[in-house]
Amino acid sequence: MTRDSLTITDNRTGKTYEIPITDDTIRALDLRQIKLNQNDFGMMSYDPAFNNTALCKSKISFIDGDNGVLRYRGYPIEELAERSTYLETAYLILFGELPTRKQLEEWIYHVTHHTFIHESIKKFLDGFHYDAHPMGMLISTIAALSTFYPDARHIFDADSRRKQTYRLIGKMPTLAAFAYRHSLGMPFAYPDNELSYPGNFLNMLFKTTELKYRPNPTLEHALDILFILHADHEQNCSAAAMRNVGSSHVDPYSACAAATAALYGPLHGGANEEVLRMLMDIGSIANVPSYIKRVKSGEKRLMGFGHRIYKNYDPRARIIKRIADEVFDVMGRNPLLDMALEIERIALQDEYFVSRKLYPNVDFYTGLIYQSMGFPVTMFPVLFAIPRTSGWIAQWEEMLLDPEQKIARPRQIYMGHDKRPYVPMDQRS
Ligand code: CMC
To answer: Are 383 and 375 in contact (CB under 8 A)?
Structure first.
């Protein structure tokens, strides 16, 4: 007869323990009963970088990394990219179901009416150097929002959480666009509430002297799909940061600033920027083989390749390749595209990449699209942060409402010195 449990024999003591299995998982705390003697602390599991530790139970995103599957609340990413809009998808991610027409209208109304930012935030932005990285500006101004909305500290009040959600989703594009305009020394362009979410973002970025900015529909649509593809991705580094920081019960702006900081890193959302820098560094198709050789020798990393969870083609990268063609039809073909295609061609048949299951990830082709749309490379991670905000808030709220969650506080295995007396200065070598 099969039992949903694990039998562990501790060969140090000869004792046997039965540990329950639920959802193919054992609880790490159940290991604590395994002790050498009564005074022993008990056994822990050691999992640097959380390679095999479930942080939570979640209903938001599902990834099957071996088969290249991504779903939000059960809906395949391909269908959402084809048929939804970013704001509708954000609603789905945040509230669990696709909205009715009325719910969607109300949601769009509220988000749209929270796009303006306090004029004082412009003063912070003015304090940054002209060449400040926009992610640095974004992280700082998101954190600053908490000082404008002290009511956000009422995290267990559902109405307050809803209000901060409107504000965060509404204001992220404004903060991002203002950071961009500051770096160019251009006057800020205010939100236009008649435009769509991505259309208004393009307006705030690129509007110059025209009375009414009219976004190019192909670029507006492409940006909307890119936003859908980036909206959530279960327990990635920044979502884990959002949960971790939020678990101290800080306000959502502070937690979101922490998540944005996590996203900034080149191994996470900053990879799209690094891909472009890498392609410019390689310089020409003729140099691709020697670059791959350097990657294989461990000297370099192939940015935009590999993923902790996907051991197959990232389904987002497949959709992005298609959007790239639509954008290039309008803006002209990005000359770096041929190099990217050659890298992919070589890598997908090279033993090094094949044996490690390294495939292009979401960041491999997005940079080429963003560059063709007129964005500088430093804006690429910002374009990731805007849509990921819906995922972060959903993950944060799920964490707050989960009775099993508490303040995140990992354990360590102490490897330092044992107790020793203080050494006076003249006796130190
Ligand atoms: N180029 C060359 N080798 C790689 C790469 C790469 N991009 N990624 C992984 N490897 C190798 C790695 O050296 C290791 O080889 P070995 O077994 O010989 O030591 C093996 O593959 C396993 O790699 P790992 O570092 O243990 O894998 P990980 O799960 O810790 O890292 C990753 C995942 C995404 C950080 C990593 O693949 C990487 O650094 N990729 C480049 C950065 C990048 O594109 N990041 C964007 C990820 S997708 C967007 C997002 O959601 O953040």
So the answer is: yes
